[in-house]
């Protein structure tokens, strides 16, 4: 009798429900309108060099990036050392991978770096990406240079499997969440990235883009209702805290954002981009998903508690909600920290082999940026939980609930439950 389905509407007094919705929309509408205006104002005009990096695959004036399929691998004379005998050198032996170009033509030879082969050998049927220097000549002694494995098919297969699992388990709501996810990523690619490349303020672009994505994604996935509006308010609060902390710590901790190859490349080909600002924007985008998760859960939790105990006071509801929220905080903090620790294992292994110690390693360069990113995101997440819980309690008390007994009432039963609600007032 105490159980009910999330998709069923909770019985509420229509007048109080409308009043609560008006209050929520009075708070959210200005933020949504401002986000829309800012998206229009910041919309990229394409005023940047879209081919600034073409030189990376055309440095000698005619090199072509191509793909092909591995046919076999043979240990033989390295193509890059052939001809060295003529100048007194020695021909070296290595693993040579034979590849059939996807565009047709004769089989070619590729030398794959030994460190790559130690991790994963090239097998017959593998798809590779390589640089074709045959039309321009090469100083390396070979006309074809290995670039990377082509992973499109397994990644696409995994993405489809992920979508199917989500839809099968979560149903239509899961499907809407997947559509929202794809839409959010598309919005980042179409709006946020070009706006940053045009030299837009990364903090403004990050806050505008994150707010717009959250408005659309939350309402699309969870419906236009008071629970979602409550979660959205909590999410926006968390994003604000995250942005403020990121802005302060980027300067206080002297974070430059210039510690990986991609950032250094950007600083060269797109000097109008602020790397520290880009770091802040990345922190905001990274915090969106986790904030959305905890705020939606807390909002739904308060409604569930109010449904099962309609006579509970606001203080009681808040304390009960926070008991669940504290568990959620602990599990989410573990998730964020361990996810990064897993990705950073090679760096931690290097620290173990040096005499610098883990403290020095964690506080230097790229590692420091990631650690601070985790801490900032976690603080925004932790503070969003009590704020969301408090907002949810205020809204649920202003709205009124019908109690768990009304979960499957039809016609007359629903009217009776509503009458009971009026009598409690």
From TrEMBL:
Domain of life: Bacteria
Keyword Chloroplast: no
Annotated keywords: Membrane, Transmembrane, Transmembrane helix
Biased composition (Gly residues): 403-413
Official protein name in the record: YibE/F family protein
Transmembrane segment boundaries: 22-43, 153-172, 179-197, 203-221, 230-249, 269-291, 329-354, 374-396
Chain residue ranges for the region called Disordered: 403-425
